[in-house]
């Protein structure tokens, strides 16, 4: 709120010394996300980060990080088209029975326990199992690729990013080679096959696309589930209403996305030329973070509240982004959260926070979510 007094487009300095522009107004964020002058390609982004960021805080290598999310049209358009052929609504809808089964198995494990950590026992394993299933990645590999992804995302300056990127790339290359030799009916096998018009992803593109899909699909869904359970347990009236009428769960999920979305400042761009947004001119070559959480809570467009609205016409939100980079996995993320909430409330509707005063610890400023969520089941 102190920031809001300064405006909707402001300049901030992070505790680690990084200075950048931050967009916190809803209309301004929406405009920035749809503006082609706001660029994302990895070469330009890394060049600016190396100039303005503290020593060593650039993450994965350019080859690995040069995926669809870090590219601009026309490259982005081509990559998105190629992956969308395989990442279809039909494929995602077909995953529902498996998501239900995985969730049921995870909840079965909780039976008989008085207390569980909903992050460790549900919110963390479910999305990673689902993404492994979707992509056709062996679930046994998860500890390894999760370790590398976390190191690359955290961009800790004391870690050798080039070495970790190399390990991750080699792992992905071996995985893809094995799939090419023995294709299955999973998404990666589909991506390896020839496209209708002969266009296909090259091996380096496949490696970075697989990296993106592995990373984008689990931490976000993890925090959506964790943040949602937390909000429900903090709002007894909403919890009772959801138990009485589970058809309201999708509306609750949208409200969690609006008020407590997993992506905070993680939407970074840079200005390819001078860009005026909300009456402020951001000069060319500046780093710009669009804060989706701040935009979603902009009092100018959305009521500021901590209650869960359980109505179908929820206030609008930008939790999945906007424009050409709008989240490819939004239907999948929503489905995972809806299944998790439905089964949890059905089986453990009487659950409550172990400590009602429990204040969650945000893992990072650019991802919003909890490291643990201790809950008493009965
Ligand atoms: C992009 C949020 C789940 C895959 C994005 C963006 C946001 C977002 C905000 C755009 C970032 C930007 O413009 O800079 C979320 C949230 C999720 C979620 C809140 C909660 C469940 C998933 C899942 C997948 C996924 C399950 C599946 C693999 C992607 C991909 C992109 C993306 C591939 C890049 C799209 C592009 O560049 O065209 N997501 N995501 N996401 N997300 Fe998600």
Automatic annotation (TrEMBL):
Gene Ontology molecular function: heme binding; iron ion binding; monooxygenase activity; oxidoreductase activity, acting on paired donors, with incorporation or reduction of molecular oxygen
UniProt cross-references to Gene3D superfamilies, sorted A to Z: Cytochrome P450
PROSITE patterns, per the entry: CYTOCHROME_P450 (PS00086)
Keyword Heme applies: yes
Keyword Ribonucleoprotein: no
One Pfam family here: p450
Lineage: superkingdom: Bacteria
Database matches in InterPro entries: Cyt_P450, Cyt_P450_B, Cyt_P450_CS, Cyt_P450_sf
Keywords for the protein's UniProt record, in alphabetical order: Heme, Iron, Metal-binding, Monooxygenase, Oxidoreductase
Family: Belongs to the cytochrome P450 family.
Protein name, per record: Cytochrome P450
């Amino acid at each position: 709120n102190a920031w809001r007094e300064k405006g909707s487009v402001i300049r901030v300095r992070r505790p680690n010394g990084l200075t950048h522009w931050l967009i916190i107004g809803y209309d301004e964020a929406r405009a920035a996300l749809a503006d082609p002058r706001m660029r994302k390609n990895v070469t330009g982004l890394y060049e600016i980060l190396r100039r303005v960021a503290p020593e060593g805080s650039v993450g994965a290598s350019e080859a690995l990080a040069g995926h669809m999310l870090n590219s601009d049209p026309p490259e982005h358009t081509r990559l998105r088209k190629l992956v969308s052929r395989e990442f279809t609504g039909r494929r995602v809808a077909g995953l529902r029975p498996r998501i239900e089964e995985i969730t049921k198995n995870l909840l079965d494990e909780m039976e008989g326990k008085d207390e569980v950590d909903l992050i460790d026992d549900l919110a963390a394993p479910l999305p990673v199992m689902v993404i492994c299933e979707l992509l056709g990645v062996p679930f046994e590999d998860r500890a390894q690729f999760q370790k590398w992804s976390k190191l690359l995302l955290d961009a800790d300056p004391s870690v050798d990013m080039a070495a970790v990127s190399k390990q991750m790339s080699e792992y992905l290359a071996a995985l893809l080679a094995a799939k090419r030799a023995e294709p299955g009916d999973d998404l990666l096998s589909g991506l390896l096959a020839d496209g209708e018009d002969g266009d296909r992803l090259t091996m380096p593109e496949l490696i970075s696309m697989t990296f993106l899909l592995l990373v984008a699909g689990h931490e976000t869904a993890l925090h959506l589930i964790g943040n949602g359970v937390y909000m429900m347990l903090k709002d007894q009236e909403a919890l009772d209403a959801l138990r009485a009428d589970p058809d309201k769960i999708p509306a609750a999920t949208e409200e969690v996305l609006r008020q407590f979305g997993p992506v905070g400042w993680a939407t970074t761009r840079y200005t390819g030329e001078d860009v005026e947004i909300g009456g402020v001119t951001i000069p060319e070559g500046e780093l710009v973070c669009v804060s989706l959480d701040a935009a979603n809570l902009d009092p100018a467009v959305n009521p500021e509240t901590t209650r869960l609205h359980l109505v179908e016409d929820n206030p609008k939100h930008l939790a999945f982004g906007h424009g050409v980079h709008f989240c490819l996995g939004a239907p999948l993320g929503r489905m995972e959260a809806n299944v998790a909430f439905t089964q949890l409330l059905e089986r453990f509707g009487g659950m409550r926070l172990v400590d009602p005063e429990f204040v969650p610890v945000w893992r990072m400023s650019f991802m919003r979510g909890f490291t643990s969520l201790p809950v008493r089941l009965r």
